[in-house]
Request: fold
Amino acid sequence: MKKLKVWIPLLFAIVMIVGMLIGYRLYENTSTKGFFKTRKVNRVQEVVDLVNSKYVDTVNADSLGDEAIQGILSHLDPHSYFIPAVDREEMNEDLKGNFEGIGIEFQIINDTVNATYVLPDGPSAKAGLQVGDKLIKVNDSLVAGNGITSERIKKFLRGPGASKVTIALLRDQKMKLVDIARGPIPLPAVDAGYMIDKETGYIRINKFSRTTYSEFMQALEKLQQQGLQKLVLDLRGNGGGIVDEAVNIADEFLDNDKLIVYTEGKNNPRREYRAQRPGLFEKGKLILLVDEGTASASEILTGALQDWDRATIMGRRTFGKGLVQEPFQLSDGSELRLTIARYYTPIGRSIQKPYNKGRENYNDEVIERYHNGEVIHGDTSSVHAGPVYKTKGGRTVYGGGGITPDIFVGLDTSNISKNITSLYINGTLNSFIYTYYMQHIDNFRRFKDPAAFATGFHDEDKVWNTLVNYAAKDTIDIQTISPRDKSILQNRIKALFARLIWRTEGYFEISNGNDPVVKKAMEEMDNKMAMPIPARN
Reply:
């Protein structure tokens, strides 16, 4: 009996294992899998299981599942989408506001990777990389002279934080090996923040990531120290991002307990976002610049400030995205971003444009604005077919199809000559900018900031003559272009030089000097009328 007691647990274990194996075999050979069928399996899962277990050829189960998911989402709204596990980290980089890399910008010229910018205090700077270095090898991979692409280079240079990468580079015709430990590289959300004049500041936000609000506050505080009384906030091309970041920025302009936005959906009760603290810029003239690329969180900020008559909105009608997505991580590491609610401006506007004609029609709607002339002449009557609202100050505003600006500024659609277009398409202009800059780097370094460069750089004729000869080598003739095209190109060249030295801050400080929308904003700032100004097109 004692021996039997010893063996009983072992016998039970063997029986259990055999039972599990039998159950597993049954699981593999039935179309509706599961030891205990607790609920009816849906048809989609049945079809996927049947294909996996019975189909004549081998199929990629993951790919099949992905296609099934995409098929389901295609019948929902245009902003619900699926991210495979392999793409999830890269897709979330913009929202995180950083990625793991070595901290350089580069440009490929004649199949050679040239370092055009080295992030101060970044991994590459600490390892001694310099602007002008030519990358020959990354670890064991040759990256020069073999048709290398920007995407391949990024894959070589990015990797897990603290991991090492060895770069063979050419500097002053000498080879050099550099070991670099990868680290976090910021993806700035604020492109520029500077004073246009003694009272007026300019801030440009390119997205709403987890760092946007803190970056915005740093820029705003810096400008206030320089005498800020009026502000131009540029949201053109800003496709949105994290709602809380936009709400926090709106809070800096609105007082008391003002409603900023609220969301509501069939399975999500109303949720309100309100101003919660004293803001840094609750008084003072404020103009927001928008266009057809202004979407989502950008429209939340724009709608709140328009509804409360806090800002004058200038530019062109915004994109029209009023749907809220929530990310759901799936068991295999993939992610579903599902629309769970609509958002509404303080006075109840939904600015979501229609999507009942399919995704293709929805995505082409912005292009249609170019074809029907809206971007040149302003909104058409069909756009204003949606609900009409009145702001607290009595201004007329609209729902259902983006946010219509208070002041319309049309797009300059004047044709640019074919030869100018070729400079961009062939990469000739970018190559010239970098080459000329490196050849005259000491001359550029004498300017302490973009403002000094804007007023002190007078080599336009020399640069132009050099570009004429440089373009001719690519069989591009720019000697016969119109005076208008020449002026536009010279302004662009100057801004691109500034970008090499001061990044986006320098680029926008120079280019804004000739931007018709920024010029119009400055005219309105000088207008003695109270702001915001009643809507007019």
